[in-house]
Amino acid sequence: MDFAYDAKTEELRGRLLSFMDEFVYPAEAVLEKQLEEATDEWARTPIVADLQAEARKAGLWNLFLPDAEHGAGLTNLQYAPLAEITGRSPHLAPEALNCAAPDTGNMEVLAMFGTEEQKKQWLRPLLDGEIRSAFCMTEPDVASSDATNIATRIERDGDSYVINGTKWWSSGAMNPNCAIFIVMGKTNPEAERHQQQAMILVPRDTPGVEVKRGMHVFGYTDGPHGGHAEVVFTDVRVPVDNLVAGEGEGFAIAQARLGPGRIHHCMRLIGMAERALELMCRRANERVAFGKPIAAQGVVQEWIAESRVRIEQARLLVLKTAWLMDTVGNKGAHTEIQAIKIGVPLMAEWVLDKAIQAHGAGGVSQDFPLANLWASARTLRLADGPDEVHRMSLAKRELKKYR
Amino acid sequence: MDFAYDAKTEELRGRLLSFMDEFVYPAEAVLEKQLEEATDEWARTPIVADLQAEARKAGLWNLFLPDAEHGAGLTNLQYAPLAEITGRSPHLAPEALNCAAPDTGNMEVLAMFGTEEQKKQWLRPLLDGEIRSAFCMTEPDVASSDATNIATRIERDGDSYVINGTKWWSSGAMNPNCAIFIVMGKTNPEAERHQQQAMILVPRDTPGVEVKRGMHVFGYTDGPHGGHAEVVFTDVRVPVDNLVAGEGEGFAIAQARLGPGRIHHCMRLIGMAERALELMCRRANERVAFGKPIAAQGVVQEWIAESRVRIEQARLLVLKTAWLMDTVGNKGAHTEIQAIKIGVPLMAEWVLDKAIQAHGAGGVSQDFPLANLWASARTLRLADGPDEVHRMSLAKRELKKYR
Amino acid sequence: MDFAYDAKTEELRGRLLSFMDEFVYPAEAVLEKQLEEATDEWARTPIVADLQAEARKAGLWNLFLPDAEHGAGLTNLQYAPLAEITGRSPHLAPEALNCAAPDTGNMEVLAMFGTEEQKKQWLRPLLDGEIRSAFCMTEPDVASSDATNIATRIERDGDSYVINGTKWWSSGAMNPNCAIFIVMGKTNPEAERHQQQAMILVPRDTPGVEVKRGMHVFGYTDGPHGGHAEVVFTDVRVPVDNLVAGEGEGFAIAQARLGPGRIHHCMRLIGMAERALELMCRRANERVAFGKPIAAQGVVQEWIAESRVRIEQARLLVLKTAWLMDTVGNKGAHTEIQAIKIGVPLMAEWVLDKAIQAHGAGGVSQDFPLANLWASARTLRLADGPDEVHRMSLAKRELKKYR
Amino acid sequence: MDFAYDAKTEELRGRLLSFMDEFVYPAEAVLEKQLEEATDEWARTPIVADLQAEARKAGLWNLFLPDAEHGAGLTNLQYAPLAEITGRSPHLAPEALNCAAPDTGNMEVLAMFGTEEQKKQWLRPLLDGEIRSAFCMTEPDVASSDATNIATRIERDGDSYVINGTKWWSSGAMNPNCAIFIVMGKTNPEAERHQQQAMILVPRDTPGVEVKRGMHVFGYTDGPHGGHAEVVFTDVRVPVDNLVAGEGEGFAIAQARLGPGRIHHCMRLIGMAERALELMCRRANERVAFGKPIAAQGVVQEWIAESRVRIEQARLLVLKTAWLMDTVGNKGAHTEIQAIKIGVPLMAEWVLDKAIQAHGAGGVSQDFPLANLWASARTLRLADGPDEVHRMSLAKRELKKYR
Q1: ipTM
Q2: Minimum Cα–Cα distance from A297: chain B residue
């Protein structure tokens, strides 16, 4: 047992921390300004392209992808502390490094399950940051945490598949540069519970695809990240070659995609919580009320100490989960992946709430990043399945041990 | 001791409940539509004027004002259950009845402390719903919960007062129809701690007044309510007659204004929590996951029961506080006003969080009112002084009993 | 709506508060001493008899019994604030006034459902404080919150009933002076769900009754209150006249008994919480750490403020519940009785936990009453049905409103 | 970074797990029986001696002592998972292995700071389990978390030191076999804040030592562990050679002792929480209410999942802390030691509370170990300094980073 990062991780951490100081943090104010002046609320701001150029130069590109052929070839355990650092500036750093959801998960799907042709057409430009992508899974009319509920149909018709259904929370899809959608639907509705689904590639400009509107998250549109779209598919016809892997394999692909997706979110949440704690400390040191800095108030001290205790515990569980994924595989790390999915967003939400409170009314406003971060953390208690579903599932495995 | 509403209250409750069913709830969808089509994001939507006309017809107008000459002459205890009902649709009902903050508090100040001339010029059109008003107290650079921190200066110069300072969170001030600002500042910075401040009337169109920008609340601008403005006052000159009461009386006026203001917020929060509980129950009955309605899930049942228990307790404390204000005065009800200021927003936030969770990802979006209501409730843990300041103050009085 | 106690209540409160000051609080140290010297750990201490004599003189006797023929004839609303006061010294005051569980509930059962003969033989000496009684309902082998689980059998055999079964948590039954047991069992196991049970009177000295052992509550035996016994009934034979009301009426009697029983517990819990808050304040004022009284620590102030807020809310809900029981009956107050059963023990537990923490290690010990009170409050989250059962039941009624 | 235990740890874990199954768990019922029949409530029960004999045979003896000369020579990281396992049966296993507080800490003090003579006289018999010891630090009249408050005096008088003062919570001291007390007091009250104290060895039979009474913990006396004594020292005279290290070094010794002491407590708490979770799962699988096992109730599933999530996080932080102590020393691990002192008792308390609730009324009684374990966990929020003091101290270091 050893709690020190390995040499490669330490080297990359050092490089990334410098990159954050030199490029990312100074870019935050630029982003705000460009957003105010933007004509298309859904497009990426120019600053992101600038940062991407610097990141490539610095050798900080596609770090998320364990596949050494296409990505950086890092283990989950090596990537985790890097993703954490990007979480400190989550509206800029992940995209700067081409490590932002949902593109990361989509690239992993293509790298693992894509044909050579699919890789050439879609994976390559994604790896190069030329296009963006969306993942269309959740549906408005059913509880999507239960995959058997999915109502979208993918029906074979000659050399085509025909897709009908409505998806929402397709993150990034409002972005005009988002060129390709990976859509989950049922090809075999009569098959066994987890053999009914498939995934298929749908170019954005296919007839019958309607990107209808952006969903809000507590008043935020998340515009610069391409928002969260409701997308309607009406008799959308694509060639059979667009299928990812085979019919009935959609659930397995989703599982393969969701494990890393969930841990990436959790890694970044640790960084968000660290940022919040730093801001809370700075504010507490500077702000004076009733004759002394609020850092001298016992209640604020409690928040700070409790934040530190919670962050440390959460980080370790994320790191152990990454290690398990590396050593025994995603399936063997199932309990831990669920555990961090349950615990880490709640932790980050708690720390952010306290940091907001320490900032007074400014904390809920656009003058600090806290309220926006809070909304992201809160939403992750629902994204990829609500906490309650994960708790139920984890508990059942625990109960089985003693039956 | 008697827990039944009196006859007058019951009659008004009946009338208001019908008004909600007939006019307000159906108007919610209209509001959404008008907001999408609005050209000025800060202006009131036409539907509000329609509702106001109906409310006047129904005799549901200015219910908040205990002063029978200008308002409905209700006690706080009679008004509380009515304000609660308006809280069920807080973006429409309070304004429909001309009972929305900050106009209510401003009208109370004018009714209590205004000269005949001030009443004629500003109170009359406010009572008639012809103009709106703002209350400029909080400042960005200081912890405003400590009134001695206020930096805005109101300096006598001949027959004028000259005002310099920056305010923010001046709710309603982004609305072009918001004609009059009540501004708090220091006239006597060398006087005793609570004798330094004054309040002064500043018409919006006075030279030197700059309504600079709207503050966001978790991504929401609260546009249709006139937003929350940052307002800069630079050498703003108004006649000495614009002073409300005298120099040094600003703190006392603020206290007189804040007591009712806080309880009105709390009354409406009860209604917001009731609305959330209703929506949570409806959703739980309708939504199916893993083969049964989520109403059958033990965890959701816990949320519902706990919500009911918390709402009932909070309502009773609000009602008792209203009764105390009526019988022993705002000063005698000081502890209870602080107690509801501490307890009720937290209660409403908790119920809303659970209702959101029961709605899945939809809960954080614009498709349900819950996320927006949540943001309001959360913000009330900061508005009019953060919880921590009220807890500290309440505790000190409690500790004194045993010294 | 009126939040003032009526004149009779105020008069009795005054009298009881004097009684507490003059007799009860000074007796607490005497109790401790007599307990140390006691030879029978299950017997009442002599100080209780002394207090009872004083209480009768002061006209503070059997206040709990609404029946004016046998008791004080107070409404629930009048009794509630008195029971609260006794809760401030719960190991002495309730017994001093002959208002201690389980005798109170048993007397109510006898007063409401007993025959003249049963009243003469058992109610009279209970009213006079000459004997004590136990209520034998809960069973070790089944979840007793579901009454249909009860396994004890009461079988007719000629002019007798024969009882077989095992009960536990029969409070008071370890006391040698506890002369009569009211036992719940099934007479009609094949009848409809709530028509299967009956209650029967079993004198302690009936052959086949074995009072086996006292159950502990977190290390406490509650000896001076007669403990909490496990009682085994083996072929216990009593005359048919010992049945309370008729066969199959046990569930209805239990319901009639539990409503007032639950509210009495809650009333006393309010008093316990008030006592804890008082002790916390006194300690905080007196104890110095790191150069200032802990009363000046922000965290302790938070505990105190939050305690006051929670106590006030809980008290009002208890009072409203009492009022509902008086005006619409126990059945009409069903939701509120469950609500206080859920909310009040948790509130008291929370306040007591903080008071303990403020007392340092002394707080968990015998040197302060706090740990013992905490154990009582904690246990009331389980007694008369665990919180979870009440929440489930309350939620189902709430959900029904919107189906 | 590597989350696997090393080979030595795995081997010892295997051996210890077998020992638990073969000897410790079966001994729990024996302990209960021997306690009931015991004539001296403060003496060790015979079963402990039996287990100790087996443990020595199994090579599971003095594992806690990193000093390879006297102990097992394990690192903290190697010992941590073993201490966790003993925490599953905390009333038997730690003593069985001669790894029970306060002897462990006292042996460490003697091994690190003792003279050869002191080691021969006291360390040797402690290592052999022949005698027991107590640590006399906390005082009833002052907040002992602030070491400068300590009032006990150790005054030089010729070749002797004379000790006057009152201590309490001297765990183990009620045990007649507890032969030696390490007493903390002030030798240099005028010196710098942390140079005032010293530690001195006081044999129990020294004239002037009065072991006055045992403190209770939520009604428990912890008799078989020698209780928690109040000890009065009146003109107690011991030779100058009894001083441990020098005058003024008491604070430094205390610090050296408390770090390992705190982490040992935390390690065992993890095991206690695991035991509670196991019992909760077993109960949930077995107990039926309302027609199904309570394992099928969503609320119970939430408790189980949440317990697993909290335990995993806490364990990792304890392990990392152990690793830090091994690699950078106790001082470098200061923040983490405080973090586990804050977080782990609260975690264990929470899990135990839920396990109790799942057991119904039985959960608070002597029929399950849960209530007793809960009392231990709760008390550790106060022992070695209340949580609030540690939070304040940790927060101040955190705040300093950003000043």
Answers
A1: 0.97
A2: B388
